[in-house]
Amino acid sequence: MASIQDLKSQISSRGGLSRPNQFMVELPSGDSRAVNVLCTRVNLPGKQLITHDRRMNMEFEKIAYGYAVDDVSMTFLLTNDYVIKEFFNNWRSTILNEETMEVGYKVDYQHTIKIHQLKRPLDSAIRNVNTSNIVYSIELKDAFPTTIQSIDLSNDLDTISELTVQISYTNWKAIQVQQQGASLKINRPIFNFGGKFNSLNSTVQGVKDQFLSSRSNVESLQSRFTSTRQKFGRFNI
Fold first, then answer.
1. pTM of the entire structure?
2. Which residues of 85-101 are buried (b: 16+ CB within 10 A; e: fewer)?
């Protein structure tokens, strides 16, 4: 059983525990600092493998054939100029023009969004976060907002207005960040098919060579038979 000292040693040797309030988002905005500072909540997405059941004799097993990703939710504090609200309204107008009822091409309104999990200490300038402060980063590919939720208004004196936006995307991938002292490395493929593919290619090439050799022998026999037929003339085939 691990002791408290072992737990403390593991935590301290790996830079401490990760804190959910240390993060940064990068949106396709001209005022990226305002977006980063005003974002109060965001989730790192997961990924689910889609499987189907296959029966082998009397046993059932799951076979993967695809993946599925969930939308990402972002929550922002609203300032009195509603800069965040206007930003997503303008983004939405490039997707669907409600006045002309025209829908834009996806290639024109999709963008890349990055989410970074940070660690202390942070640099003084949030727009210039050093890579040594980044613990984990992901990149949302072909992302765009699909739901801009309503803003709740009330008579509460101490309530701050917030805006929650749901982001859809095609896929996400982890961004490799160089970490010093990391002992866990998974930057190699899990499966190595190179040797099997080379063996398969050799087998296929061998079968091809045998086929060409057999074909050459058949053509040679056919040529000899034709020559014999022309020589004797009495064979009616």
1. 0.67
2. bebbeebbeebeeeeee
